[in-house]
């Protein structure tokens, strides 16, 4: 048997190796910063290299977001070489669509999608024929699998191993698909998730999914807890918060020392809050922390909760971006192409040009060293050079958008849609394009010149502002959590577990510093129906007790 070792730089802890070497179905509960995606990449490498997954058997990877799908596929490509061709990485919706595309003729004619159907995002645009609602894809895939045992067997005989990432967010339909395809088969299913990050219940996540999987698949449960990103101080705080979230009968731990870098701040109004945070962020930047290593989080309505703060950041000339609606588009392959093209024209570096060339080569299915490689290099180099020669600081935003359109056509839209399955939905492709174009126009309007707009476009030189549910998987040196108040956690009493999970997600984004704020008055919380400006903390009082009494957060009252 081939002796296998993890990639250089990977800490081969006993808990990591135990999970990688395990033979059967497995439920992995991982803590924040434990390296869940890297675990799956290493396990795939192990299975391929040791012939545990021999040719022609394959590995299926299911994720929720395109970014995660691309991330794990890239890691497998780097670690496994040509064997990565047997690693199939899909989003859940992408996997369902692949089933429908292959076997749609088994459906009754009345519910069968037509040839070249488009995927739409709104119910009003769907017609059940050539316009299929994205949320209906799992339903159609389940119908195909349920009525054809031979089709089910194709998947169970092809996939020796199945990976499911962010398992805590799995819906009932998605779990049913996994169960119908792979339960009571020879396939070994590994699910990775964090029960304490279950903040997607509002979107239909199945609350009992971990227990159901353990019972249905006779799976074992293992833990991956070592946090590789946070300071020891924050790791200890997160362990204590985890005890609180899990609601065990034992008393919650009490840390010994007052935290140096974690604090709660009480303000009389939002302007006082904004001035303090802006000053703190300015000081951090002056001390070498990059803008993009700082995040401002809110439970909800980040645009409203941070409006005054963002104005103060602008006054300090600190770049900042509202990321709640933007970050998904920027992480799309189309978003990456936009960003790389802008940089290649305005501020090119060898890394940018190389990555852009790799995308072009991949779209044309040309391997390194292939006879066609020199031709491709010449074509893209000439295109970029032509655009660079035309560009100057006075370029209009319309000219820049036109250049992007030219570049997309140069790459070939059909090849882009063939490479990334989600873009086969014209509605989805148009939605992502619209978001990116609008963002570029806003950055140009904000900065006044193309050079600065390009730098701001990828959010690599700006403080990030977002709601909690958008921050999963991200990490920052400094995290500012704005508004730990009853009005933000309006359903805390009814859903304490989900709200405590949200708090855990917010705190676990931080590597070095956490700042939590409470503001006595928030002017935006007044409507024609109700004046709710006055903040309270009756419902969230247990959270404050946890942070101050158990986690030893410093408390600073700025109300005078």
List the helices and strands and how they pair.
Blueprint: H1 14-21, E1 26-30, H2 36-49, E2 58-63, H3 66-80, E3 87-91, H4 92-103, E4 118-120, E5 131-133, H5 137-147, H6 149-158, E6 159-164, H7 172-182, E7 188-193, H8 209-216, E8 220-224, H9 232-246, E9 262-267, H10 270-286, E10 294-298, H11 302-305, H12 307-315, E11 320-322, H13 327-331, H14 333-346, H15 350-363, H16 373-390, H17 397-411, H18 413-419, H19 426-447, H20 450-457, E12 463-467, E13 476-482, H21 496-507, E14 510-519, H22 541-550, E15 554-557
Parallel strand pairs: 1-7, 1-8, 2-3, 2-6, 4-5, 6-7, 9-14, 9-15, 10-12, 10-13, 11-12, 13-14
What does this protein look like?
- With 560 residues, this protein is an alpha/beta fold.
- Helix content is 46%, strand content 14%.
- The protein has 22 helices and 15 strands.
- The protein has helices spanning 14-21, 36-49, 66-80, 92-103, 137-147, 149-158, 172-182, 209-216, 232-246, 270-286, 302-305, 307-315, 327-331, 333-346, 350-363, 373-390, 397-411, 413-419, 426-447, 450-457, 496-507, 541-550, and strands spanning 26-30, 58-63, 87-91, 118-120, 131-133, 159-164, 188-193, 220-224, 262-267, 294-298, 320-322, 463-467, 476-482, 510-519, 554-557.
- The strands form three sheets. Strands 11-12-10-13-14-9-15 form a seven-stranded parallel beta sheet.
- Helix 21 links the parallel strand 13 and strand 14 (510-519).
- Helix 14 crosses helix 15 (350-363), helix 14 crosses helix 16 (373-390) and helix 19 packs across helix 20 (450-457).
- The chain is globular, with a radius of gyration of 25 Å.
- Residues 197-203 have low confidence and may be disordered.
């Amino acid at each position: 048997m081939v002796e296998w070792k993890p990639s250089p730089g990977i800490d081969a802890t006993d808990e990591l190796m135990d999970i990688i070497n395990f033979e059967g179905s497995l439920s992995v509960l991982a803590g924040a910063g434990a390296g869940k995606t890297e675990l799956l990449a290493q396990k795939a490498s192990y299975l391929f290299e040791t012939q545990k997954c021999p040719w022609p058997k394959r590995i299926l990877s299911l994720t929720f977001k395109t970014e995660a799908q691309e991330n794990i596929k890239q890691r497998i490509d780097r670690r496994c070489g040509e064997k990565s061709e047997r690693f199939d990485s899909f989003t859940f919706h992408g996997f369902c669509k692949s089933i429908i595309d292959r076997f749609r003729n088994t459906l009754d004619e009345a519910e069968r999608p037509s040839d070249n159907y488009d995927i739409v995002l709104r119910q009003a645009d769907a017609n059940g024929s050539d316009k299929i609602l994205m949320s209906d894809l799992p339903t159609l895939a389940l119908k195909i699998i349920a009525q054809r045992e031979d089709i089910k067997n194709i998947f169970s005989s092809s996939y020796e191993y199945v990976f499911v990432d962010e398992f805590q967010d799995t819906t009932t339909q998605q779990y049913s698909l996994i169960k119908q395809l792979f339960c009571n088969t020879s396939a070994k299913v590994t699910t990775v998730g964090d029960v304490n990050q279950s903040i997607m219940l509002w979107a239909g996540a199945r609350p009992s999914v971990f227990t159901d999987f353990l019972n249905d698949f006779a799976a074992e449960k293992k833990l991956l807890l070592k946090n590789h990103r946070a300071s020891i101080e924050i790791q200890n705080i997160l362990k204590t918060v985890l005890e609180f979230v899990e609601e065990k009968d034992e008393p919650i731990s009490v840390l010994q020392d007052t935290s140096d870098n974690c604090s709660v701040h009480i303000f009389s109004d939002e302007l006082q809050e904004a001035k303090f945070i802006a000053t703190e962020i300015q000081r951090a930047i002056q001390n070498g922390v990059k803008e993009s290593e700082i995040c401002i989080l809110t439970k909800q309505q980040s645009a409203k909760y941070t409006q005054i703060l963002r104005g103060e950041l602008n006054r300090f000339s600190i770049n900042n971006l509202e990321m709640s609606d933007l970050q998904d588009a920027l992480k799309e392959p189309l978003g990456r192409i936009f960003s790389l093209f802008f940089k290649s024209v305005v501020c090119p570096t060898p890394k940018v040009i190389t990555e852009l060339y790799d995308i072009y080569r991949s779209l044309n299915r040309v391997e390194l060293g292939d006879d066609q490689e020199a031709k491709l290099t010449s074509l893209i180099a000439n295109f970029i050079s032509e655009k660079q020669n035309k560009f100057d600081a006075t370029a209009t935003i319309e000219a820049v958008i036109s250049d992007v359109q030219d570049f997309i056509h140069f790459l070939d839209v059909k090849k882009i849609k063939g490479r990334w399955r989600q873009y086969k939905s014209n509605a989805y492709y148009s939605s992502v394009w619209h978001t990116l174009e609008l963002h570029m126009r806003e950055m140009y309007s904000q900065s006044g010149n193309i050079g600065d707009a390009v730098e701001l476009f990828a959010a690599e030189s700006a403080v990030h502002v977002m709601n909690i549910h958008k921050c999963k998987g991200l990490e920052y040196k400094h995290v500012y959590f704005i508004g730990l108040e009853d009005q933000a956690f309006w359903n805390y009493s009814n859903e304490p577990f989900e709200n405590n999970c949200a708090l855990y997600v917010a705190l676990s984004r931080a590597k070095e510093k956490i700042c939590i704020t409470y503001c006595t008055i928030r002017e935006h919380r007044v409507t024609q129906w109700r004046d709710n400006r006055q903040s309270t903390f009756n419902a969230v009082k247990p959270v404050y007790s946890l942070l101050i009494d158990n986690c030893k957060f410093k408390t600073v009252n700025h109300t005078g």
